[in-house]
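Q: Predict the assembly, please.
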Amino acid sequence: MKANKASVKDLKNAAARRLFLEKELKVKLAAISQMNFTDADVAGHNIENLIGSTQIPLGIAGPIAINYPLISKLYYLPLATTEGALVASISRGAKAITTTGGAIVTLNTVGITRGPVFKTKNITHSHDTQKLIAKNLPKLQVIAKATSSHIKLTKIDINFVGKNLYCRFYFDTTDAMGMNMATFASQEICEAIEKLTGATLISLAGNYDTDKKPSWLNFINGRGKQVWAEITLTKKIVKEILKTTPEKVVQIVQTKQHLGSLMSGSLGMNAHFANIIAAIFIATGQDPAHVVEGSIGITTAEVETNGNLYFSIYLPSLIIGTVGGGTPLPTQTEALKIIGAKDANELARVIGAAVLAGELSLTASLAQGSLAHAHKTLARKKS
Amino acid sequence: MKANKASVKDLKNAAARRLFLEKELKVKLAAISQMNFTDADVAGHNIENLIGSTQIPLGIAGPIAINYPLISKLYYLPLATTEGALVASISRGAKAITTTGGAIVTLNTVGITRGPVFKTKNITHSHDTQKLIAKNLPKLQVIAKATSSHIKLTKIDINFVGKNLYCRFYFDTTDAMGMNMATFASQEICEAIEKLTGATLISLAGNYDTDKKPSWLNFINGRGKQVWAEITLTKKIVKEILKTTPEKVVQIVQTKQHLGSLMSGSLGMNAHFANIIAAIFIATGQDPAHVVEGSIGITTAEVETNGNLYFSIYLPSLIIGTVGGGTPLPTQTEALKIIGAKDANELARVIGAAVLAGELSLTASLAQGSLAHAHKTLARKKS
Amino acid sequence: MKANKASVKDLKNAAARRLFLEKELKVKLAAISQMNFTDADVAGHNIENLIGSTQIPLGIAGPIAINYPLISKLYYLPLATTEGALVASISRGAKAITTTGGAIVTLNTVGITRGPVFKTKNITHSHDTQKLIAKNLPKLQVIAKATSSHIKLTKIDINFVGKNLYCRFYFDTTDAMGMNMATFASQEICEAIEKLTGATLISLAGNYDTDKKPSWLNFINGRGKQVWAEITLTKKIVKEILKTTPEKVVQIVQTKQHLGSLMSGSLGMNAHFANIIAAIFIATGQDPAHVVEGSIGITTAEVETNGNLYFSIYLPSLIIGTVGGGTPLPTQTEALKIIGAKDANELARVIGAAVLAGELSLTASLAQGSLAHAHKTLARKKS
Amino acid sequence: MKANKASVKDLKNAAARRLFLEKELKVKLAAISQMNFTDADVAGHNIENLIGSTQIPLGIAGPIAINYPLISKLYYLPLATTEGALVASISRGAKAITTTGGAIVTLNTVGITRGPVFKTKNITHSHDTQKLIAKNLPKLQVIAKATSSHIKLTKIDINFVGKNLYCRFYFDTTDAMGMNMATFASQEICEAIEKLTGATLISLAGNYDTDKKPSWLNFINGRGKQVWAEITLTKKIVKEILKTTPEKVVQIVQTKQHLGSLMSGSLGMNAHFANIIAAIFIATGQDPAHVVEGSIGITTAEVETNGNLYFSIYLPSLIIGTVGGGTPLPTQTEALKIIGAKDANELARVIGAAVLAGELSLTASLAQGSLAHAHKTLARKKS
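A: Predicted assembly structure:
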């Protein structure tokens, strides 16, 4: 078959591959040909068979204020998206939050996880292995450390069923997302566990991570960073900026985000975390497949005794980094500079605040009954 | 606060906004400034507050063959990603599949869904409303049709708890992803339901859709397109191209994709659907937040009596389109031309085949024990 | 080994088996020996190797009023339990409900389900089989009818993954719980499907039923009977009988039953449906393993504009009957007479009202902060 | 309304209450009147408004052998049930296991849990409270200990969303199931936490326990006792006793218990754990509402290289005790004597072995295609 003779893989660079495809498929790849990085910049460590670049519109939302113990800091939010109304909506939420003095954001670092599965001889062996691994954590931490100065094994969860033993290694990888580092370290740790216990590694990733899949394990134990963000808005601000009332916003959260998620068996007890996280992830060079974990999480809202609106979001498994992955690419580097976060924790806080802003604004639109209208006026301007 | 005086929103175009940010933040936005589309092309319907574009490396995998009843057709796969090894891995799977004669792909169109929630007076009213909506489906279909010639209301699921009644409208939107169309039509349908039943619309989207969140409702009833793809490989091909054995691949699928997902409470009973779907979605202008639904699904594998490897994937809720959204953008249009799908169904089949290729290849790497190695050699070339 | 020579199975009746055990184990089985049924009454169709009976304390709660369109009817609730405070708690809820005029209860009969799994040749065969079964529903309904005059096949859900095709047959079995009838009918239907489609039956029960396991499929599509019950209580009744306020009850429902269930990934979005259902099921001869489906379901509560408390419960999969199973046994027959339900629907309504009463009362206790106290005073009287 | 004048509650004993009901409802309660316990034995701590007893047929299965490091011990299994074929099926599994030398059973004691929810001032307060509780575990352990010499607080899990903070207290209650003890201790612990942190207790039970509801939290972290049991059977035993082959049994487990549970979103990845657990729980005086947690769990099976069948079950949250609750009742005490377990751990092992036997036998019936037949011949003997 044709596939067997010619191959883009054998061609030496993006230009040659484009030429091959343009001839082979009778298409023009003029737009794709424009790159502000070279083959050498990305070949291998970011991508193979490079043919050019995909360009996604980049918008700016904000500024949004985050309240730190002593100071309040303003951030602009770079958002790569093609969904009309999203940037405007996040900006509206940011305005309500910032006018009120800024979002409060707090976080726990759970760490990136890798979840290998081992084969044992029987449940007695599984049980002994469970105890033996727990007992040897310090030794395994030394082995992990030896693979990179940037990684630290912090914890191991272990469970088993029959002859199948599942581990969940938790790693602190400072400012890197760290999945690759964690994979290399896990390889060494698993070999040590095999020697130590006589169990046999079946798969370095056994879905007990759980990487790029939505799972209750991620939700309950967390993954990457657990981020919480909140704001309390006066009735007046809710009316003037969000065009609705605290009572209506709370009704939406209880009926849609909570009851609606229970009725549909959803792990995303929110309105649209995924939209905001996808737009920031793409803009800043995060892995867009990690939007899957990012989309799980809960929104809460309350009318306070003084009539104010309390609104909060919780992200149990935010997987991000400020170094490595797609972050060194030209547009991604500039986007990170726009945010100006000094480390992964600050970036996580900004993403938490952005999610708070976007969730608040859409929930208000639903309360106001203007969702269809908003999309009609904005998303359809052109047609 | 500073936020209140200056605003990027008031500036007239991307250039002005960049200039504002460069001054305000003391950054250079040279890379972001490069756009192969104009403000007018995207402003409003795709994005607000445009400042430029984000560039993501685009690689090419394949060709991959899909077997249609009479012909076998070859496709190249455009993949926008920054994860090293992904394009190479999909290409390897594509080679195994194509060498073997091509993937078989089949699908059902469930349709895009919108899931509003209504408030009723009591459970008797909820129950009556459930029956009344069902009885008036034809009337509501006429109302939906009136909102656009491209949309058709095909079905309504209804359930309730207390005074909260949840509907799930299913729409056929031909080659458009159709979420916006569905939202406009749902607005009209909901107003008709209010008149018809006396129930009050609380939220046009009640998480009973479930849009951009992983839910059992999406998994069990499907959303967008349900896509199945399969391939049967000889022992020889598995050994030569995938460097492992059918038995080992089956063991990974049973221990990781199935048991591992049960142990972690995962809705993604697969290895990495999200990686492949994110890369194709971004390249072809799909909504990257829909990767969330795309990441749910199941992989199966069997050793056949003759020793061959049977391998299949199932995507219960693939949300895609070949028109609208980000598809008209220059690089996205070229990427769609590279695939050359004549409609959304053909694009869905190609994505199904791509997921089959990527899932097969990674599962084989895990079986072979080469995951860490693969990332080390590819993803670390640069450092 | 000793096990191989002697066996209780070979002994002719309960008395002989008790004698064997008393000798073999040096125990006295005086209490177990008391039975108000004979070997012949139960041997085979209810149990094998009978040795006697287990006695469980039976208490009475109520009366509880249910409001039917024209009349209000009072019911006493027989409850077999060993959990102190349960009967008292349900009685307290019943008093609040009855004093207020009675519960409103409504239901849908989904029907008992059986979910076989078939093996197909490939996904094309799976897809064709899915369509073929749907097309032949009328023919399969005739086949089902032929197995018993008491059973009717009403619907079939079909889904597949790879070569595995899952069906969900829905049956109307009037006043019988009907699992056995459904199993016999399913056997015939499956043989017809094998002939019709060329698919091979792997298992008559493929967990797509889902019988006696908690599943989202049961929750979303329902099983047996979907039952909803509600009551609206004045502030005064809530204070005098339940010792708390509508606001506090609503806070518990939102924080425990809803948010708490989201936080723990629970399919039981309620306080203790399982307690009430287990007690009535055991008293009336239902299958106690069906408490598993009974424990899934949602409680809702609202403070109405006039300050009243609206409280409701929803049981998506209540599996019950008034004939067959354990219902003909002496104490179970008398318990059913105490309730006085003329058919399975009326029994389902009474169970719905009982669950409403028990859930209301415990939720109020939690709101009042008296849970520990209630158990201490009641459950510890003796010690 | 009639309900307001007369009340069974005011009557002094079971006889008087029966008399009242017989008159009021024109029924005879002769069978219910038979009790081998007195009002005083159960009134208050086990039940209120006693009217008599419910009698359930009690059958005997086994003996079943459990292999301990040095000895193999035989157990008879008392099973209270009205489901024909159940006792016979468990006996068949027990025979296969015992003939082969006995089941291997292992366990972890996770402990009974109580999961209160607190209200905080904001997420900063939630976060501080999370740390403060963790820091004060030793102090809280002393407080727990003071409530009973039989209880020990072993661990606390803490998570929060917005102003809602969820704790999960783990208790070791030795041989008692311990839910009441845990509730009393939790009350004291919660009052201490309120003083310590300024958070306000909303509900002593916040569904973060999760008690008598199926939840992923119970599945992932375990509750009560985690029990694993396994057996390896020769091809010959599988054929002679179970009438099928290892290959067919493994196919059922993979297609029904694993894939079927993934397809239906089930937390019970097994065939019928609930049947066996309900029958033993009722016979031995356990709380039948705890069958809900008992029904979650996983079955695994493998064909070993020598052609033998490996079969295992895992119960993540088995809630049982040998003292307290319904265990002191006459028939329940005798049933516990039949088992002859010296403590809760031994009882847990016997239940694990019983579940292994019942699951093995039903899975074999499904493999053999005899499910419908078995029920027809046994369950229908009478009709």
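Residues 116-203 of chain C form a domain with the Alpha-Beta Plaits fold (CATH 3.30.70.420). Chain C touches chain D through 148 residues (CB under 8 Å).
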